[in-house]
Each structure stands twice: as C-alpha cells, then as structure tokens.
Specification:
This protein has three helices and 20 strands. It is α/β, with parallel strands linked by helices. The strands form three sheets. It has a nine-stranded mixed sheet with strand order 1-4-9-3-11-13-15-17-19. Strand 7 and strand 8 form a beta hairpin. The longest helix is centred in the first third of the chain and has 29 residues. The radius of gyration is 24 Å and the shape is globular.
Length: 243
Amino acid sequence: MKTSNKILVGVLVFALAFLTAVHLVIYARYKAGRYVTSRHLREERFDSYPATGNLLLVSLAGLDNVTLVPSDTPRVEIEKGASGRPHLQFGDGVLSLRGDTLVSSPAGGMQRIKSYRQVVVYLPSGVPVQADFCGLTLMGSADSLHAPGNHSVKLNETDFHIGWVNRDLPGGNYFDSLQVDPATRSSVDIYSGATLRSLTINLSAANLDDNQARIGRIYLQADTSSTIKLSGANLANTRFILK
C-alpha cells in the first residue's frame, strides 16, 4: 500500500474512532440523566408564574415583546434580567402586566418607554385581552380542528401580529374567531400563513394588512383615518359596517 493511502486510511480510522468515542460519552450521559433538556434551558431564561383562580381579563401596558399562546392553564413567563423588569399583578380575576416607564424628553415633558423584556402569556380561549402601547403577537393552533376561538382583543397604540413562526413556542397559525374591537392608533398585521374562520375588527386611525392570509369571513368597521389592505379573496368575504 502506498504511503499516501496509508495516511488516508489512518485519518479515516482516527475520525471514526473519535466519533464513536463522542457518541459513547453522550449516550452514557443520557443514560445517567446528565443532559440538558429544552425545558431546562427555558427555565434558565424565564421565570414562570401560574395564574391561580378564575382568569377574567389580561391587561398589558408598555411591553414591546409579548406573545399570547393558547393553553388550557393560564401562566406567565418573563425573561430574566436585572433591569426593565415588567410589574406583574394578579387579583380579582385580572392579570396585569406593566412595563413602561416615564422619562424626561429632550424636547420637554415626559415620554413613555417600553420594556423590551420578552413576555409569554399562556391564555385559555375566551379570556379578553387589553393592550396599551405594546408589541403583541397572538399564536394559534397547529391543528385546524383545535383552533382557539372567541378571542377578544382591545388595542391602543399597539403593533398586533396575528400568527407567526416561533420555533421556541408551541402553537401554530389556525384560528377560529377573533374580535379586535377597537384597534385605536394601532397596526394589525396578519401572518401570510395564518387561517382564520372569522375576524371582526373595528379600526380607528389604525392599519390592517391581511398579507393574503386565508380568512373565511371579515366584519369590518373603519374610520376615514384608517388604512386597509386586503387581498381579492378576503375582500370578497368582507362585510363593511358603517360607523
């Protein structure tokens, strides 16, 4: 055998032996339970708070990165960190999360500043949400047969995303019925891959963009200061209601 061939064979044998050794080490750690799960990694990033009792309303203010995830059991996850932590309060059926602060503006007066800490709210169907000065994403179901319904959202100065792709969270882009009333000085952006059976929306100086998502029926109110962008198929399924 030529010297070059011997060197090549030696390199391949060494690589195979190394990979086998790594595999055996990983397998041994797995059998011994010494491995890091995705749940453990998430627990290191987030503090989790259960919402005990009967949840009647979720109130959000001054939070730029909130995700609503459908769940039978309500709870809240807040990204860990030393500063800018949102204030969480639960009482009388109301879960309240506030993250904004008031700072002096260079132009004079006071200015609201959002908290950019990531917040996840696991929300049962039928619990209404109020969002003021927020960035908000609503996740649906990965299964069209179990699409969450009867969601009611009130928006003020909020960027609202309906459906999205988030590999770190459960859920998908199937929705049953969703009511956004009102959306004031807000933007409503529907993910292109989302499917909604019904959308009822009331716009006041607000924007709506369907991004060609599939929507079975739309009931729409809007004032003259609002901007609406609907695809042809959704436009045909829209019932306009005069204010």
